[in-house]
Design brief:
This protein is α/β, with parallel strands linked by helices. It has 17 helices and 18 strands. The strands form 3 sheets. Strands 12-11-10-13-14-15-16-17-18 form a 9-stranded mixed sheet, with helices on both faces. A 7-stranded parallel sheet has the order 4-3-2-5-6-7-8, covered by helices on one side. A two-stranded antiparallel ribbon has the order 1-9. The two termini are 21 Å apart. The model has no long low-confidence stretch (mean pLDDT 95).
Length: 487
């Protein structure tokens, strides 16, 4: 599992490491990795020799990284032009190296570029880009490469203008996001939160980490953990030869209604894709659920459902007195519970009062509007901190949905899901996610791992479904079968 560290922790590690090295060693290591990645991009687009490279150079270390990387590209035959935003504050060693390699400096964008290197500001900056940087970044849209296409933009460490510790992208004076949108971000030593959460993660494009020797010097746990395939496979329950349906776990699904039967069908579909051996459905969509999923044991009420190892409650259930009574019964059961959609609405604006006495785990799965009802306000700029706060107040694991879904635990651990896709922004996909999550809980996974794994696989299913055209929730449920690990 990868980790992302906040700026203060990165700075502390850099100081400790630099104290053991000659001056500018880290900058040269960073520049070498940066130049290598730029060279690979140019090789795929006609070659390095003769390519026109534009450097956007700020007054900090990121500008120095860009200049030294530009010097390395110039030595390979690239035509490198640097635009220092404040010429008398550009890194002097970097400027000298660039000129010695045949590069030049200028005060305006050229008409053509085959690659743009964003070295305006790095992890020490805060707030959106100001003039003249904001104007210069806006002008990048006018550039074309030798094939007449838009040139790729490579960000140095982070896209300039993003909030590194939160992943937020502040607006500029015109009310629009004032930050670079990179195709590739080359980061040094470790990931930062802006690479993995919030709108900044989208602007980072593909993130590649360059090893500069920093990792052993990071003395604090990461602020955010990022799972990968190996984590999900390692957590997935094994199926020994003696397995049978009850030993694999039974998940109860109390979703859907006569008014919204599809929610029941979809959440059960998500549950069936998980590792449990049996699904018990309880609710007003009984006939529709059995029609689509004949292996399910279905009843009309939670009380009649029988024994389960977890409950999924909420999607399409409604908020009337009968639904409220079912929620009370689900919360009284000594098993983990997933609360989604109507289940979150029924909790009201004081969820801690309903959840604090539970001994078994609860996972809350709000989108932003549901989060605002639970927490008294929207997540805001720092989605990780907001999810942490709600988790701490309720004692629940919080799965805050979004393009980069955040999972936060009451003890302060946070995860960011890397598989999200905008293709999932369609009705019913959250129902599928809740069902899969409930199945993982019933199979015995701890609540945080179940939430992380469900979000990860749900994202993969969304991507798989999108390869065949516009995505619907039934497409996502069907695609889960091909992305879940084989036990």
């Amino acid at each position: 599992m990868r980790g992302a560290w906040r700026v203060a922790d990165v700075r502390a590690a850099e100081r400790d490491l630099m104290a053991t090295l000659p001056p500018d060693t880290l900058m040269h290591r960073a520049a070498a990795g940066l130049a290598r990645r730029c060279g690979l991009l140019l090789a795929d687009r006609g070659g390095v020799y003769g390519a026109r490279v534009v450097l956007l150079v700020g007054s900090g270390d990121n500008g120095g990284d860009a200049l030294y990387a530009g010097a390395l590209l110039a030595r390979r035959g690239a035509r490198v032009t640097a635009l220092p935003l404040v010429p008398d504050r550009a890194h002097p060693g970097g400027v000298a190296a660039l000129r010695a390699a045949g590069g030049i400096t200028a005060d305006a964008l050229p008409s053509r570029a085959d690659l743009v290197l964003d070295g305006i500001v790095g992890i020490g900056a805060s707030g959106g880009l100001r003039e003249p940087a904001a104007r210069l970044v806006a002008e990048l849209a006018t550039l074309t490469d030798r094939a007449g296409d838009r040139p790729p933009v490579v960000a140095v460490d982070v896209p300039s203008g993003v909030e590194v510790d939160t992943g937020d992208v502040p607006d500029g004076r015109d009310g629009q996001p004032a930050a670079v949108r990179a195709d590739v971000t080359v980061t040094f030593g470790c990931l930062k939160p802006a690479h993995v959460v919030g709108p900044a993660a989208v602007r980072a494009g593909t993130v590649e980490r360059v090893d500069i020797g920093l990792t052993p010097w990071l003395s604090t746990p990461p602020a955010i953990r990022v799972p990968d395939d190996s984590d999900i496979r390692q957590w997935w329950p094994e199926l020994p030869p003696s397995s049978e349906k009850y030993l694999r776990g039974v998940v109860g699904v109390a979703t859907g209604s006569a008014t919204y039967p599809g929610a029941g069908v979809l959440s059960v579909g998500g549950a069936l894709a998980g590792p449990t051996g049996l699904v018990r459905y309880a609710g007003g969509a009984r006939a529709e659920v059995l029609h689509h999923h004949p292996s399910v044991i279905a009843t009309d009420t939670v009380a009649a459902a029988g024994r389960v190892q977890s409950w999924v409650f909420g999607s399409g259930r409604g908020t009337d007195d009968a639904a409220a009574a079912d929620l009370a019964e689900v919360l009284a059961a000594p098993v983990p519970v997933v609360l989604d959609a109507d289940g979150l609405t029924l909790l009201g604006d004081r969820p801690a009062d309903r959840l604090r006495d539970r001994s078994a785990a609860v996972v809350l799965t709000p989108h932003d509007r549901e989060f605002a009802r639970l927490a008294g306000g929207p997540p805001g700029a720092d989605r990780v901190a907001a999810a942490h706060d709600l988790a701490a107040r309720t004692g629940a694991v919080v799965l805050l949905k979004g393009d980069r879904t955040v999972v936060a635990t009451p003890d302060g651990t946070a995860y960011a899901n890397p598989t999200g896709t905008s293709a999932l922004a369609t009705g019913g996909t959250g129902d599928v996610l809740a069902g899969l999550l409930g199945s993982l809980l019933a199979a015995g996974l701890p609540a945080d791992r179940a939430a992380v794994a469900a979000a990860y696989l749900h994202g993969l299913a969304g991507r798989a479904a999108a390869r065949h055209g516009p995505v619907t929730a039934p497409d996502v449920a069907a695609a889960l079968v091909d992305v879940v690990p084989v036990g």
